[in-house]
Amino acid sequence: MYSDKIYNSWKPIQNEKYKQIVKNIDIRPLLKLPTADIGIGSGIFEEFLQKRGIEIKNIIGVDKNVNMIKNQKVKLKNVIADANSLPFKDNIFGFIICLDTIHLIKNVKEIKRVLKNHGYLLLSTFCNRENKGRKIKKIKQQMKDLDLIKEFTIESKEMEIVFLYRKR
Ligand SMILES: C[S@@+](CC[C@H](N)C(=O)[O-])C[C@H]1O[C@@H](n2cnc3c(N)ncnc32)[C@H](O)[C@@H]1O
Questions:
Q1: Mind listing the domains of the chain with CATH numbers?
Q2: What is the pLDDT of residues 107-158, one digit of tens each?
Q3: What is the CB < 6 Å shell around ligand 1?
């Protein structure tokens, strides 16, 4: 499939970013909490974590595209759903991961609704030198009711901005 080809070629680029994410954020304790990966796609972040012996059993994958989920090489629970209208009760996830997907979601209130109070949200978005400032501004506006715990930029083959937020 066309999308398989894209995602396989994307994997090494993503893996470089994931290395920086786990270097800068102590993700193990967060993954002990009930976790959702929104826009999980083919689960290459989970594959990366599992290869490093990091526990992924508490993660529920969420994606609207069943073909992406079919490409997953790790065993996970998945829910096929649109992130704009999530089929979960309020305040249930202690940790939400949303990598390279936030720009595709219009109703980001849904992510905040299903995140527990004091729960953590790991967000990332790719960018370039031209649009970096604009992208940071947009995310900060969208997440202004959460506390920003950490923010950093990854300068690998593709530039990435990473945010760790905490719900009040
Ligand atoms: C760019 S990929 C990122 C995949 C993965 N998070 C990663 O970092 O490798 C975006 C993923 O989000 C999914 N997606 C896009 N819009 C969505 C929505 N509204 N609800 C749920 N999933 C969505 C796509 O199907 C795709 O799998």
A1: 2-155 (3.40.50.150)
A2: 999 999 999 999 999 999 999 999 999 999 999 999 999 999 999 999 988 8
A3: 14, 39-41, 44-45, 63-65, 68, 82-84, 99-101, 104-105
